[in-house]
Structures are given as C-alpha cells and as structure tokens.
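Board notes (copied after class):
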Amino acid sequence: MISLHFLITAFVVVLAPGTGVIYTLALGLGQGPRAAVWAAFGCTIGILPHLAAAILGLAAVLHASALLFQAVKIAGVLYLLYLAWQMVRADGALSVSAASPTQQSGLRIAQRGALINILNPKLSVFFLALLPPFLSGDATSATLEMVVLGTIFMAMTFSVFVLYGLFAAQARTLILGSNTVVKWLNRSFAALFAALAARLAMERA
C-alpha cells in the first residue's frame, strides 16, 4: 500500500507549484514565517473535503454532474480573482510591502488557504484517480487504506508548503529593499492568481 512509487508520486505532485504554493510564498514573503506556516496549514486542511469526497464516492458524483462542477469551479475562479485583487491593492490583505508587516490572524490566513483548495473541484477527481491504483485490492480495507494514503499526502503537503513559505520569509529582507521590486512582486503574484483562475475556468468535469 505505502510503496516507494506512491511516495515519489505524491512528493512530485506536492512539489509542483500550484495555487497553494503561490499563496504560501506570498504570505511568507509579505508577512514572515508565522504567516507562512498558517498558510500551509490552511491549504492542507482544504484538502480534507476532497479526500473525504474521494473516499465516500462523492467525487464521482461531482465529476458526473456538470452543473455542480461548474458551480464550484465558478466560485473558485472568482475567489482566485479576489486574491489577485488583494495582491495589487496597496492595503490588500495579501499585498507585499517593505514595511513591517501587519500581523493578521492565523485563523484568517488559514481560512483563505483552505478556501483555495476547497473551491477547486478538480482536487476531488484528482484523489479519485490518484489513490485507487495504490490500494492493495482488498475491498474490506480499501477505505482505511485511502485514509492512510490521504493522510500521508496531506503531511507531505504541509511539510513542503512550510519549507516553501519559510524560504520566502528568509528571502524577505533580501528582496524587499526596493519599492520597484515590491510593486512588481505584487503585480507578478496577482498575475499568477489571475492565470490560475483562467486555467481553472477552462477545466471540464
């Protein structure tokens, strides 16, 4: 069940930059290590509903229901565009600044991170495709095996995202010395969120 193949596959998937990574990097760079850890935690918690959907078979329902898939997708697209707007606003919650960062509530940071993943309908379908090939084939233990594999995937997600975020926090003092750099960083992060929203908008069930 817990094979080297699964561990490598999961690690490669987690390591690939996506919306959660971009969010964690932005928080680490803009607000420091504490915010990065909360961002990583939130993104990880946002995986739980999709993992549960895959285990309970609801992911197949989401995949089969074009209306439900579109509804979740549209909500996800709008949320990513909102995050992009928060990056470019001077007083935005995600805006990177050379000034000492305002310490936001850890729970608020985690909530935003969780919503990023919760509002991505492809994650449920992803788990439905990722986990079954690594099961032992014993129907009586399939649910437990999916829980174990999903838990390992979440632990990897949290660990890798924290490392990404702490790296960004360390780079903060080196990068944020120039107002021009800060301005272009915010624009770049906003563009990334907008691009990810566009990609999500093109996804099909």
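Comment from the instructor: The first helix runs from residue 4 to 15. The chain has a mean pLDDT of 83.
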